[in-house]
């Protein structure tokens, strides 16, 4: 077992303090390619803070985040020079925001939105950019004829799918999602989840998904991490955690899901 | 240049070129830095100038800081030497710096301009000073100065490309006709100030130093001589200059930027050179031939 595949992401003892209050406390986990890690927990439990640290938006106060990428050396995200980090992140990482409007440019057409990450990475051929954009619209089940429409003219679910297309167009290794299905109606949620599942398998993505919807967690994630007041209180395979919750808080969480 | 500025101990000679010596020193430092980092916007302390902001206060301060008694100044506004602003600025420097002024591009050592770069290629001993209203090429896309500085620092200019993409997607070609952003020395994205994109290629490997002064925005940037200046574009939609069907009605030039002039109430128009000095030179050359 010498050539064990290294996990894409290794988080070790990550801690973030806000004004002497611990937002994240000693969080460690690993994530491999093709794996989906769900993070569940009540609001204020540090899920989004953790995601921001992973996304390079907020430096942690302690601990390290190690990235192992196929074509470069292992590196610690927050020990890189800022310029290096800013150059690296857009090529390997995508963030899907809860609100599609945070992740899209509303005054730029759908095609422009999808092509922007490519142009940032130096692509300079209009024809290619456009065909890639149309292909991705098809990938996320939007009619490619709408490539020149503004995102404002799209429905909420379509905007979310557009955001996903924009995130995945650079073929990132790591995708961070913050409540990707929040604020969408149930049938749209179901379609979006199907789509996400397909894309994760197709592109062998490593995904961290923050949610407080246990249904989403069960459908999408292979493993679950339950957080409460900045700590990870329970981890395990999704089915195990949801069928056999061990911590009182997890039991509460699971039992509080409405049964229809 | 210091010799030019010899004060001769006379008090009224102190503020040669209108600005006081400390200010000129500060602006010269900014200019030196701007020349060392082509295309980088250097902040400077904007001083009050007897001219409304937006009329060329930045250009005036740059000119006032580099001008010496032996200089010969030409001022252009929209290509013409005889417009109000050009005449006023020329008179201003004739008075406060006691320099000769000219309307001919060839004779000038300093050319202060807005909206145009002279058609006649500038030479090694000439300096082009551009008046710039908005030095930040990304401003219309990103409103935050903190953001744009980071984008410049990391050379992340994908956003500008998005603007071109949108142009092509909507209109079939890049419709930006003036203030067309350029990459200077393959590094900084810079605004060539609101010159028509026709003038962009003149900046590429120009023999003259070009200094851009934005008074209201308090920025100075420069393109040193022989610097690569590339207008941004797509591989399959390359940068193109404007073209005209006709030639100049006065001098017959086919290679200059033309303005359309209304002739009568019937709506008849003709095209003439926007650069009056170039047009006059061609006419007098033709006459002498």
From TrEMBL, chain A:
Pfam family, one: ABC_tran
Domain of life: Bacteria
Location of the ABC transporter domain: 9-254
TM annotation in the entry: none
GO terms for MF: lyase activity
Gene3D superfamilies, alphabetized: P-loop containing nucleotide triphosphate hydrolases
Keywords: ATP-binding, Lyase, Nucleotide-binding
PROSITE patterns (UniProt xref): ABC_TRANSPORTER_1, ABC_TRANSPORTER_2
Family: Belongs to the ABC transporter superfamily.
This protein's name: Phosphonate C-P lyase system protein PhnK
UniProt organism field: Mesorhizobium retamae
Automatic annotation (TrEMBL), chain B:
Domain of life: Bacteria
Pfam families in alphabetical order: PhnJ (PF06007)
Disulfide bond in keyword set: no
Keywords: 4Fe-4S, Iron, Iron-sulfur, Lyase, Metal-binding, S-adenosyl-L-methionine
InterPro entries hit by this protein: PhnJ
Enzyme class, broadest EC rank: lyase
Recorded catalytic activity of this chain's protein: alpha-D-ribose 1-methylphosphonate 5-phosphate + AH2 + S-adenosyl-L-methionine = alpha-D-ribose 1,2-cyclic phosphate 5-phosphate + methane + 5'-deoxyadenosine + L-methionine + A + H(+)
EC number: 4.7.1.1
Function summary: Catalyzes the breakage of the C-P bond in alpha-D-ribose 1-methylphosphonate 5-phosphate (PRPn) forming alpha-D-ribose.
Family: Belongs to the PhnJ family.
Record protein name field: Alpha-D-ribose 1-methylphosphonate 5-phosphate C-P lyase
């Amino acid at each position: 077992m010498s050539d064990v595949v290294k996990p894409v992401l290794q988080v070790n003892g990550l801690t973030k303090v806000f004004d002497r209050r611990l937002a994240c406390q000693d969080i460690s986990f690993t994530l491999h390619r093709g794996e989906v890690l769900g993070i569940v927990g009540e609001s204020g439990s540090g899920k989004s803070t953790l995601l921001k640290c992973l996304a390079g938006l907020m430096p942690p106060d302690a601990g390290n985040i190690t990235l192992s990428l196929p074509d470069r050396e292992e590196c610690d995200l927050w020990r890189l020079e800022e310029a290096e980090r800013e150059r690296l992140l857009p090529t390997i990482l995508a963030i899907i925001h809860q609100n599609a409007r945070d992740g899209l440019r509303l005054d730029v057409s759908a095609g422009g939105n999808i092509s922007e990450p490519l142009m940032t990475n130096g692509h300079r051929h209009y024809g290619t950019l456009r065909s890639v954009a149309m292909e991705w619209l098809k990938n996320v089940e939007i009619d490619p004829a709408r490539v020149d429409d503004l995102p404002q003219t799209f429905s909420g679910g379509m905007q979310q799918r557009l955001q996903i297309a924009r995130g995945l167009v650079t073929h990132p290794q790591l995708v961070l999602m913050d409540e990707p299905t929040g604020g969408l109606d149930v049938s749209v949620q179901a379609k979006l989840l199907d789509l996400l599942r397909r894309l994760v398998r197709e592109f062998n993505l490593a995904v961290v998904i923050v949610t407080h919807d246990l249904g989403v967690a069960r459908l999408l994630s292979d493993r679950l991490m339950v957080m409460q007041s900045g700590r990870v209180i329970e981890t395990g395979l999704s089915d195990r955690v949801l069928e056999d919750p061990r911590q009182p808080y997890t039991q509460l969480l699971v039992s509080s899901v409405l049964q229809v | 240049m210091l010799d030019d500025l010899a004060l001769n101990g006379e008090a009224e000679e102190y503020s040669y070129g209108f600005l006081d010596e400390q200010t000129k020193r500060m602006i010269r430092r900014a200019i030196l830095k701007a020349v060392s980092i082509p295309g980088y916007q250097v902040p400077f302390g904007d001083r009050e100038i007897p001219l409304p902001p937006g009329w060329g206060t930045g250009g005036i301060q740059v000119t006032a800081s580099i001008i010496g008694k032996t200089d010969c100044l030409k001022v252009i506004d929209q290509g013409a030497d005889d417009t109000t602003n050009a005449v006023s600025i020329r008179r201003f420097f004739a008075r406060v710096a006691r320099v000769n002024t000219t309307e001919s591009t060839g004779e000038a050592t300093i050319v202060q301009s807005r909206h145009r770069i002279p058609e006649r290629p500038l030479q090694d001993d000439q300096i082009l000073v551009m008046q710039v209203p908005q030095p930040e090429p990304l401003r219309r896309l990103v409103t935050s100065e903190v953001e744009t500085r980071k984008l410049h620092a990391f050379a992340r200019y994908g956003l500008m490309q998005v603007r071109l993409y949108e142009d092509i997607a909507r209109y079939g070609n890049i419709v930006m006709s003036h203030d067309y952003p350029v990459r200077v020395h393959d590094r900084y994205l810079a605004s060539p100030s609101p010159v028509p994109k026709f003038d962009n290629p003149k900046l590429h490997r120009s023999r003259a130093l070009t200094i851009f002064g934005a008074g209201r925005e308090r920025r100075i940037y420069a393109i040193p001589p022989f610097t690569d200046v590339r207008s941004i574009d797509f591989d399959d939609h390359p940068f193109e200059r404007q073209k005209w069907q006709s030639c100049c009605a006065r001098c017959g030039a086919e290679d200059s930027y033309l303005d359309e002039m209304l002739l009568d109430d019937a709506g008849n128009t003709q095209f003439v050179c926007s650069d009056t000095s170039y047009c006059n030179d061609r006419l007098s050359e033709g006459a002498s031939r």
